[in-house]
Design brief:
The chain is of the alpha+beta class and about 210 residues long. It has helices spanning about 1-30, 100-105, 185-200; strands at about 35, 40, 50, 55-60, 80, 90-95, 105-110, 115-120, 125-135, 140-150, 170-175. The chain has a 5-stranded antiparallel sheet. Strands 1-4 form a two-stranded antiparallel sheet. Strands 2-3 form a two-stranded antiparallel ribbon. β9 (about 125-135) and β10 form a beta hairpin. The longest helix has 29 residues, at about 1-30.
């Protein structure tokens, strides 16, 4: 009798463990990729940057509704035109953002950077539509891609209350809104935006006045 109970217990535990492992496998197989922050800024001394020794998982973000099919902005969204991007003179972009996020940014004046630092709050969503041609004239431009950046909160970082959050997740979609971010492209995005960390205080290149 005891043997039967032991066997039943073993199979119950094994089955549960199998379900958990499958669930974990599906989660990692989805789109979660470990990224390392370019550094950490002290809240008490924002100009001071220390190395980050941890990794966080990029989280696959769904493309949020931000404009109508005709291009009309939805409530709560604004946009800013960017003439050139990625060192290519024949490209331009519209950067969509929520004024509520911009209002909650922390602007810090410092003599060590070209302009004041702007630290974006957790939960910020930035959407960039990249075009070939001049996007300010729809008839003369073609939508190439849609990219999304979302700022995450620290997860399990000891002493997190002493630093500004710096974890951003990335997403990329085709003009038809199909997910198109490969692992290589993800790392390319993160490496490029990590440069902005030293220039603007956060991983966002575009200045806002």
């Amino acid at each position: 009798m005891k043997l039967k109970k032991a066997i039943h217990y073993f199979w119950s535990v094994s089955t549960l463990a199998g379900i958990i492992l499958v669930a974990i496998g599906v989660n990692f197989a989805g789109s979660d990729t470990p990224l390392k922050p370019p550094g950490l800024r002290l809240i008490s001394e924002p100009a001071t940057v220390i190395p980050a020794t941890y990794h966080y998982l990029n989280q696959k973000q769904e493309l949020p509704p931000y404009r109508s099919v005709s291009g009309t902005l939805l409530k709560g969204w604004s946009r800013q035109f960017i003439k050139t991007r990625r060192f290519s003179s024949d490209q331009s972009a519209w950067l969509y953002y929520r004024p509520s996020d911009l209002k909650r940014t922390k602007v810090i004046k410092t003599s060590g950077l070209p302009g004041p630092m702007r630290i974006w709050p957790v939960g910020t969503i930035l959407i960039l539509e990249g075009y070939k041609g001049d996007a300010s004239h729809p008839a003369d431009s073609n939508l190439l891609e849609i990219e999304v950046m979302t700022k995450l909160d620290f997860t399990g970082l000891a002493g997190a209350e002493n630093f500004f959050p710096v974890d951003w997740s990335y997403a990329r979609y085709t003009p038809e809104e199909t997910w198109s971010l490969s692992g290589d492209k993800l790392n390319e995005c993160h490496q490029c935006h990590s440069i902005a960390f030293r220039l603007t205080g956060d991983l966002v290149f575009t200045p806002f006045r």
